[in-house]
Specification:
It contains 10 helices and no strands. By secondary structure, the chain is mostly helical. It has one domain (3-201).
Amino acid sequence: MNKYIFSLFLMFLIFCGGPQGPVPGGAQQGPNIAFGTLTEGEIQRFLKVLPTFIEIVEKEGKDLQLDARPGDIMSAFQGMSVLDRQIAALDSRLKAAGMGWNEFWPAYAKTMMAYSALLLDSLKVEMQKGMAENQAQIKQMEELLKDPKIPEAQKNAIKASLEAYKQSTQTLNQMDTIYAKVPQANKDLVRRYFKTINDILNRD
């Protein structure tokens, strides 16, 4: 994936930490737009236009100034959602490919949110496979911390490893809470187009 597209994807993942879930009834607005209902026709049109969007961003990305600061979720969302103002004629160029920005951006948000949720599901399955082994290693490391014969430097390294594991677990749990809000219907739909999305994002 081109580094500019990868940066945009990271921006999207940052933004994903902010939404509070779907608003019952009515159209999805603001951050909640990523939790709206994704339709078959919408994702089909989106995937036809996505390569054009990637080409445009690859060409214009060097000068792209996303209005976001690290950890500022709403700023990150704002930076992604106003690309049409930062890339000249983006709306008309996307519209010529089949989908204007006002349609493309919601489809992008809903598709990539569901896509990310599926990736997380796969990660959780892999982590679950090694859970017993990980727990055994953690217990062993905790026992080493109680051993007076273990040098302090080694204990500090063990503590750092345990803290890193704790932080990664907390992050995974937070992500799990967020992505649990993705409509199952969206995930089922995106799963059917998963290979197509991968092929587009990972093309040379």
